Amino acid sequence: MLSSRYDPRKLLEGYPRGPEGLRIGAVASHSALDVFDGAKDEGFETVAICQRGREEPYLRFDRVVDRAIVLERFAQVVEERWVEELRRLNTIFVPNRSFAVYVGYDAIESRFPVPIFGNRYLLRWEERTGAKNYYRLLDEAGIRRPKTFENPDDIDRPVMVKLPEARRRVERGFFVAIDRDDFWRKFRRLVDRGVVREEDLGSASIEELVLGAHFNVNYFYSVARKRLELLSIDRRIQSNLDGFLRQTADIQLELREHLEVRYIEVGHEAATIRESLLAKLFDIGDRFVEASRKLEPPGVVGPFTLQLFVTPELDIVVFDVATRIGGGTNIYMGIGSQYSKLYFGRPVSIGRRIAMEIRECAEQGCLEDIVT
């Protein structure tokens, strides 16, 4: 069943026509608990793909995990025996960032003949390099983003630099440089301290530093209801940045000589945005959906996140993109989000919204339009 592009109708062969008997699955990491909890709220059974050594939370939260499949590595999920098991269970698989990172785009696109909720081919567009990257998506949509620099010697303004960490390859290292000379000085220091590798410079993302209030805006494009929904907003909690900012200015000045401030994402907190900015958020959301349809049909299906700054002039600058469920949705798990209530009359989490869409499309006969 290998293919470079799966036919949704063939993926769904043997699956129930209605919602009864369908199960919702995900890699047990990232935002999986929200997916599982939302699925249970809508009456679906769940399947958790766990990695040995990381399975305990999903075994302890047993109300929301009906079946836990424990593998030595997440990447094994594409093996034939596990694909057959997921299909036997009539699983609709919800992708998250851990799925993309640990399984890999090539395997997801050509070695995983399981119906995936949303557009599996858009996952690759989250990268900053390669022919398919989110800069192209934003440019096609006409959405403002930070100016980028391919060559560090071209830096002519303060920049934010992002590149893989030396030890934890799935994490990105961040540092701020004021100018070109400051870039080279800080880069060499990080290499000497073993934080980053010199050979990774070619894959570094060097972006204009935009100062503003940051928000992760969580959208949902509904095929069943033919509309874009703005469901929730959150913000990142990062280590050790969070602890550094909690110190007084004099201590910060002393600490900066002895440690590197890091931006490791460890949690999220809820946020709202002023109502006069909501029209701009709907505008960029609509344009992002249209651009995704043009560059990678069928475009966005289901959840996506635009991570952005709001400048003092109230301009929107998008600095990162998630073409699947975002990492901050667990903050609304079990309680739902504030903006979702404006659509449904009750608060709904992203995880539950996914399950609602699967149920509605199964009932309406449009399931093939929301899986790839």
What oligomerization state is this entry in?
Answer: single chain
Widest sheet: strand order? Answer: 10-9-8-11-12
CATH topology of the largest domain: D-amino Acid Aminotransferase, Chain A, domain 1
Strand content: 15-25%
Total domain modules: 3
Order of helices and strands: HEHEHEHEHHHEEHEEEHHEHEEHH
As a percent range, the share of helical residues equals 25-40%
How would you characterize this protein structure?
This protein has 3 domains: 8-118, Rossmann fold, CATH 3.40.50; 134-143 and 212-251 and 264-359, 2-Layer Sandwich (D-amino Acid Aminotransferase, Chain A, domain 1), CATH 3.30.470.20; 152-208, no CATH class. 30% of the residues lie in helices and 23% in strands. It contains 13 helices and 12 strands. The strands form 3 sheets. The chain has a 5-stranded antiparallel β-sheet. It has a 4-stranded parallel β-sheet with strand order 3-2-1-4. Helix 2 packs across helix 13 and helix 7 (134-141) crosses helix 11 (278-295). The two termini are 14 Å apart. The mean pLDDT is 94.
Please describe the structure with a list of short key phrases separated by commas or semicolons.
4-stranded parallel β-sheet; alpha/beta; D-amino Acid Aminotransferase, Chain A, domain 1; 372 residues; globular; Rossmann fold; 13 helices; 5-stranded antiparallel β-sheet
